[in-house]
């Protein structure tokens, strides 16, 4: 028979067999189609989410020809996409930085006047300024990006979409993004007050909400739009201002106009340069390096290849047993083909045609299902991406390749069953006898070698090379080796049956005897669990490292309110905190200043602050860091490292909120609330001694000298942020050095010691001991009350490092659970179909009706347990490799600094922590769930049938 005729016959037989065994066929099609649905959906979503150049430009500058942004430096150089850098002209950097944008223009009219010098005659422009400020909400106060522009201008068309209401037309109207409205609790018609950070909101500008809109590429930005100039009184000096420009003619803003703008300090984002970029030869050398980081991410490619490989492996492992059982169910049919002169290649063709037919069905279902899934979930996907899709982008060549991939998977899954079916003697096929089977002795040997090689490659590649690609390759090789060893391991598990009761003994022996369907299911569970364990191990190890590096500002569960400068609102902030928190103990803190108390307001034209004088330590060798002092080049690396640990070099510790004051005044009882109650410290402070954070701050063996400055002079200061001039007064106090003063103020004294030394005190805040750690809602309520007060008050609660990966680990465990139960259920269903005659025989010899249910449940649970145990071991290989890669990177960055004496940080540690909760869920919970589900979903009674043969 010719090859064409052979395949036509094989396809016809395969189609009829698929329609005859609808349940098994649907199972195989579903297994193959599921990853195809995901691949098709991902391709369509990514392609539709990646905007064309024209769409990107429209969402950035609307219908304008270009945007001009004043950088404050001139001249500059830029690339075609608008990225820019300053041009080194040899001028004094201070003279360049003095030309900051905020002193060049303050109002829209001033920016327009500056741009007229570089714009062609007849150009039109739309002003746009972006500035982060504070805005009132229905709950309190929130941050919002305030944009001053006319969103209804023709040049702004396409940048934003009005969803409800109308665009602002007067200076007292505002439109808000959907993100701001959903988070603020406000609606159209409400009033919102906007003001700069650090300013009281009651002095801000009041607007009426008249509309709701969205920016297609910034769905998650909390934004407000007002008319140009509406925020002039409260605009921050660092606000970003630009002009959307329309130039006469059809050429737009070309490279010549862009260079003219660069000479004047304007960075240009041009439509013409994006759509029709000139050759790169016109770019300055400085601009060529602006895009140097746009290469291919080799780590991402490696992870993607590994993920795709594991998906293919898992599908083939799950689909393969189904084809094997199908081949055994069809062995009489294949025997008849052989008895009538059919050759082995024809029987192989029949089985391969089954994979081809089912793969083609899965390809069609996956293609249609993936497209439908993306269309139905488009709003959800856009919400996750934070941007709207562009036009639907169907890349039919790519989608066709994915569909062909489904057919390939079907063929791959049918290869081994087809090979085995062709080797089966015709007589055995007609009688239903399976004969004696022997396991391969070569396969476990090859698998063991692959495991050793893959594990070594992953671990040594991570430790010696510090690259993810060898780790990924080694993990895949090791996992494939373990898969190759799975039949042998299943047989080894079967030897434990002799010590089990009757029903689990039957289940385990049946699984070990029929390794052709048990081993692939175990391997599929292994693959899913290994990925979950790998990610979970890396995640919990990262959390362990974060916990180790976390430095608590206060004892766990305590809270503090501190003020940077303005203390007028401290009492109101304390009232707000004590209203929301369950306070057990309160201790106030103050800053030591020269007495009698006399404060004045300092205004340098940029900002203003209150100055009440300064009190600070005067170390014996001066307050300059030895590592950077004159003559430091002669220091050894060890001496430099030792000096870097001193507060003379790092500015010393502080209290909650990052506020550090040289000399703090507090009662001895407050030390416990600050976590500074080490042995002898409380007693020494009560005796009138000063607590000192580090011995380098001492002026003698047991005393500390405090300098007093009554006049402001910060133009030149030392490393402790104290004036360098000779103090007007010096006070010497007995001192006690703290053993661990890294997070302590430089010097601590009591109010009595401060008074006796002639110091006054300036209120700086309060530390609280709480009965319980406040929840998120209580903290938000206190934050909202403090924000409404304005000023510079900080509220901090010490609730430890934030671990944000619990949900991710739960999702991973759930995913592995679903795969495990599905794979174990598939293997159990195939076992029932394959062993129908055996179950009928058991019923005939007197087995109870519950035996089938118990046997099915134990078969499913044992398969799940074997796969989970092997997967847990396999998943540790890539996890350890990835942790070694990260550790190697940390060492490579730390070692040169340590050798040069530029860091006092200790050698980076490698953190490996096992995900015990994930292990508990997978190893204990998942097999139990699989067991119970299989037992509940299996019928107890078995209809007796005539035994064949």
From TrEMBL:
Residues 322-425 form the ABC3 transporter permease C-terminal domain. Its main location: membrane. Keywords: Cell membrane, Membrane, Transmembrane, Transmembrane helix. InterPro entries: ABC3_permease_C, Membrane_comp_ABC_pdt. GO terms for cellular component: plasma membrane. It is a multi-pass membrane protein. The chain crosses the membrane at residues 301-328, 349-376, 396-421, 442-465, 471-497, 518-540, 807-831, 860-881, 916-937. It is found in: Cell membrane. Pfam families: FtsX. This is FtsX-like permease family protein. It comes from Streptomyces sedi.
